[in-house]
Structure formats: structure tokens, C-alpha cells
Design goal:
- With about 450 residues, the chain is α/β, with parallel strands linked by helices.
- The protein folds into 2 domains: about 20-350, TIM Barrel (Alpha-Beta Barrel); about 355-440, Immunoglobulin-like (Sandwich), CATH 2.60.40.1180.
- The protein is built from 9 helices and 19 strands.
- The strands form 4 sheets. It has an 8-stranded parallel β-sheet, sandwiched between helices. Strands 11-12-13-19-15-16 form a 6-stranded antiparallel β-sheet.
- Helix 4 (about 130-140) links the parallel strand 4 and strand 5 (about 145-150).
- Helix 8 (about 295-310) crosses helix 9.
- The chain binds 4-nitrophenyl 6-deoxy-alpha-L-galactopyranoside.
- 4-nitrophenyl 6-deoxy-alpha-L-galactopyranoside binds next to strand 8.
């Protein structure tokens, strides 16, 4: 209940979460994969023998790389080791249930044969569509596809950071039509895609297009009922992004959790959300150097558990190489995560915020539509006893390791609603899941 409501023409279209089946499925994904792939994978963070300090997919913005030099990477795009099925199988084995793929990043290079620009795979030595085999391969594995699309386009002559002159305004009008054409083209060519993941929407030029973007969003939603669009697409008429001038989320889920995770349920304001995460510090596209701290399987599993415990999804980024192969470090992480998921995904898939007080050992999740609780344990106390605080009028009926359901654990009542789950033994170095089946308290 908002006390003061400002009249908005181009604010949010809905208060509260979507309740339809497509969005309910999205909410239950738990784990996803992100793919950043494009021309930037060819230099892989290195230009003329020098390491670019920023994110590899931004190398084009490096002083000293002229646009024409960067753009001619198109003539080198020939990913002979690209195998869509292999990518999808890698994601499947990891346990990902959706994937977001860069159809076009900021450089403007299109991984699909767009009719509206020459800057696409069709004019590379590879020639063939990349998106079609990817969408088909992921569809075949039962992994839902979301299309990443950067509005900002460094290749298109009409793109502007701001609109200050008559000339800018004419150029940008052309760019807007181009953007609309490309989006409707993508939705037409890849009808099974479940949503669009927008990026590159932070510049003044685009923020000023509240009316256009609002109409375009409505048009796309009409064109593809059920389409999922996050909060990073459009601004309201006051230039407010993600949340409109009344503080209401714009779009179907909050898209601001970028390499960061909320700490408490209040941080997500009752909205759907997902967190997108890189394996190194801030590298989305392939970077040969793979430098700095590289997150481990346990760190990534803990992030996954934390996200799901706060009602979000966790999306892990992959940056395939210029030749189309997934680097061995990412393949290994995917296999390690998948290994854990094989036993424990029940605590991740179709799970939600449990509504219980956070404890030091890890994260609670709850199976949606049931009262089954999961404790995803990362830190075992020296006592071997895990604290649980249940709501009044509930007690623990049964508790057991997800990996060993037949062996019941001892749940000791220590006061009204507090319990200690006593572990028998724990495999060191491995997060694990304890299942709690609550019952009504007698
Ligand atoms: C953007 C891109 O610039 C980047 O290359 C990558 O594709 C990433 C997924 O998205 O980077 C952002 C966008 C938004 C924020 C941070 C980085 N943000 O809101 O904090």
C-alpha cells in the first residue's frame, strides 16, 4: 500500500509478483547459466600483447583501439570448435535450468543473422546462425532460454549516449526503429525463448525514451504472451530506472543483483530477482589471463544456496573462447557443481524463502507448495550440533541427511521452539543438506 502515488504514464504496470505458470517456473529454476560470447572472445582481454585492465567484453572501449580495427574482428570470427550440444550438455550436467545468452553485446555484433545490420555472424567466415543451434540444443536439454540484448550498440551509426542536437535526435529515431526491428526479429526467429535480458540501458539517450520503451515493451508482451522482461529495460518519464517514481518494480523481476547478493529478505522488497555472477572478479567475456581470485565450487554453491534462501535464482557466467570451446576451468567448475547438485538439487529447485531465522551454519530453503525444509550446511560447529528455530506450534517430525534419508538424525528440543540437530559424522569440505519434516506441535 503506497501512501502517496504519483500519476505515472510510463511507470510499472503491476504491483506484486506475476502469478502465471511461466513466471512460476522461472521462480523455481534455482540455478542458471549466463553465456557471454562474441567478437571480444577473440582477443580474450589482450590487444597487441598488452592486457586490458577492464572486463574482456569491454576491450573495444580501450583507448587506442579504433572502431574500424575492433569491428574488423568480424573477419576473424570462425569458431571451429563451437558445438551447441556440448554447451547445453555442460549446462545440464551443472544443473542449470535456464540460460541467458548474449545475442548482441555492447559492440553490436549479432550472433544471429539480423536483416537490419551487416554486422552479424552472416558476414563472418563462420556464416551460420549461432543462436538457432544454441536455442535448439538448450531446448532439447529442457533448459529454458533467455535472450540477452544490449540496447547500447557501439556499431550502429544512430547510437548516441545523449541527445543534444537535432542531428542526434534524427539519428536516434533511426536507432530506435532498428532496436524495435531487431527485438521483434529475435522473438520471431526464436519463438521458444522465454524472455529478454536487457542491458546497456543506462545512458541518457535511452532514459529519455520512456514512452517509446513502454510501448515497445507492451508490443513485445502482446507478441509473445508470457514473455519475461526484467527491470533493466526502461525508465519511467522521470528517468527512474528499475523502480518507478512510486518505488514499484518495473518489469517482472529485479535485475540489479549484479555480482552481489542480498543479505536479508527485506533487501528484495517482495520481488522476484536473480543474481548474475562471474567466476573471476569482473570478467564476463573470455579472458585468457583468468586472473585474480577465481571462485571455487564451494563459494559458488554457497552463493546459489544463499540466493535460493532469499527467494532468488543464481546465474553463473561462462565466457567461451574465440574458437567456440568452453575453457577447461569452467568445464571443471560446471562438473563439480553438477556433482553436488546430483544429490542435493532437491534443496535448490522449486524452493523458496523459508521464513526462519538465519543460523550460522548456512541457509534454509523451503519446498514451494509443501512444508518440507532444507538446511544447506556450509559451516559445521565444533559441537556438531546445528541450531534451528521453528515458528511456534511446529516441531520437527523427522530430520535426515538428503544424501541418507533412511538414517534419521536426533533433533533435540532445547527450548520452546529451538532445536539442535545432532550430526553423526560429516564429510569435511563438502556442503550438505539436512531435511526437516516439520509437524504440528502437540
Ligand atoms: C553489464 C555489461 O556492461 C557487462 O559487460 C556484462 O554484460 C554485464 C552482465 O552487464 O555490466 C553491468 C551492468 C549493470 C551493473 C553492473 C555492470 N550494475 O547495475 O551494477
Amino acid at each position: 500500500a503506497q501512501a502517496q502515488q504519483i500519476e505515472l504514464k510510463h511507470g510499472s504496470h503491476r504491483i506484486g509478483k506475476r502469478t502465471d505458470a511461466v513466471m512460476q517456473k522461472w521462480r523455481g529454476y534455482g540455478l542458471g547459466q549466463f553465456i557471454h560470447w562474441g567478437l571480444y572472445a577473440i582477443p580474450g582481454g589482450e590487444w597487441n600483447g598488452k592486457q586490458y585492465n577492464g572486463a574482456a567484453e569491454w576491450i573495444r572501449s580501450w583507448n587506442g583501439i579504433p572502431k574500424s580495427t575492433y569491428d574488423s574482428l568480424i573477419y576473424k570470427f570462425n569458431p571451429v570448435n563451437f558445438n551447441a550440444e556440448e554447451w547445453a550438455v555442460t549446462a545440464k550436467q551443472m544443473g542449470a535450468r535456464y540460460v541467458t545468452i548474449t545475442t548482441k553485446h555492447h559492440d553490436g555484433f549479432c550472433l544471429w543473422p539480423s536483416k537490419y545490420t551487416r554486422y552479424t555472424i552472416a558476414n563472418s567466415p563462420w556464416k551460420k546462425d549461432i543462436m538457432k543451434p544454441l536455442v535448439d540444443a538448450y531446448d532439447k536439454q529442457g533448459i529454458d532460454v533467455i535472450l540477452y540484448f544490449s540496447v547500447m550498440d557501439w556499431n550502429h551509426p544512430g547510437w548516441r549516449y545523449d541527445i543534444k542536437t537535432k542531428e542526434d535526435s534524427i539519428a536516434f529515431e533511426g536507432f530506435k526503429q532498428f532496436t524495435r526491428n531487431q527485438l521483434l526479429e529475435l522473438l520471431t526467429l526464436y519463438p521458444t525463448a522465454k524472455g529478454l535480458w536487457f542491458d546497456g540501458t543506462w545512458d541518457k539517450s535511452w532514459i529519455k525514451q520512456a514512452a517509446f520503451a513502454d510501448e515497445l515493451e507492451t508490443e513485445m508482451r502482446k507478441f509473445r504472451p508470457g514473455l519475461i522482461i526484467g527491470s533493466r529495460f526502461r525508465a519511467d518519464e522521470n528517468g527512474k530506472r528499475h523502480f518507478d517514481s512510486n518505488g514499484v518494480l518495473m518489469g517482472d523481476y529485479e535485475q540489479g543483483w549484479e555480482r552481489k547478493i542480498p543479505n536479508k529478505i527485506e533487501d528484495v522488497h517482495g520481488n522476484d530477482w536473480d543474481c548474475v555472477m562471474t567466476v573471476p572478479e569482473n570478467q564476463w567475456g573470455y579472458n585468457k589471463a583468468w586472473k585474480g581470485h577465481i571462485k571455487t565450487r564451494n563459494e559458488l554453491l554457497e552463493m546459489t544456496a544463499k540466493c535460493v534462501s532469499l527467494g532468488g535464482n543464481f546465474v553463473l557466467n561462462f565466457g567461451p573462447q574465440g574458437d567456440g570451446a568452453i575453457r577447461k576451468e569452467e568445464k571443471q567448475l560446471a562438473a563439480q557443481i553438477g556433482d553436488w547438485m546430483k544429490t542435493n538439487s532437491e534443496a535448490i529447485y522449486n524452493c523458496e524463502y523459508a521464513g526462519l531465522e538465519k543460523q550460522d551454519w548456512g541457509y534454509f530453503t523451503k519446498k514451494t507448495g509443501s512444508d518440507k525444509l532444507y538446511m544447506i550446511v556450509f559451516n559445521v560447529p565444533v559441537s556438531g550440533a546445528l541450531k534451528v528455530k521453528l515458528p511456534a506450534n511446529t516441531s520437527i517430525g523427522k530430520s535426515y541427511l538428503l544424501a541418507q534419508p533412511a538414517q534419521l538424525l536426533n533433533a533435540e528440543e532445547i527450548s520452546g521452539t529451538e532445536y539442535f540437530i545432532h550430526l553423526k559424522n560429516t564429510a569435511a569440505g563438502n556442503p550438505f543438506v539436512v531435511v526437516l519434516e516439520p509437524t504440528a506441535k502437540k
